[in-house]
Design goal:
Elements (H helix, E strand, L loop, with lengths): L1 E6 L2 E4 L4 E9 L6 E7 L6 E7 L4 E3 L7 E5 L5 E6 L8 E9 L4 E4 L3 E6 L1
Parallel strand pairs: 2-11
Antiparallel strand pairs: 1-3, 3-8, 4-5, 4-9, 5-6, 7-8, 9-10, 9-11
Amino acid sequence: QVQLVESGGGLVQAGGSLRLSCSASGSIFSINSMGWFRQAPGNQRELVAAITSGEGTTYADSVKGRFTISMGNAKNTVYLQMNSLKPEDTAVYYCNAHIEMYGMDYWGKGTLVTVSS
């Protein structure tokens, strides 16, 4: 079992920045990758960025060059630095942890990011 707790969401004006944090506990040694997904009203949940245990990263095209995902030294925390935010970035952001061995995905409860124009 893995528990994920997100923090750092809020309201920001377009062009501003926010940093999201996700702290994992439980069977963290089994985690192969962690990532951030988002879901806007009426839309499907979509991948924003992900990072593997070897710190390889992947990003959605819509956030490349603006968002940066990183992992803390203890490998149980993942951050999402979001710069040059746009109103279309408004969504609930969910932290995800993936364990390949069991084909399991764990999710946080989500944190709301609102970007005003």
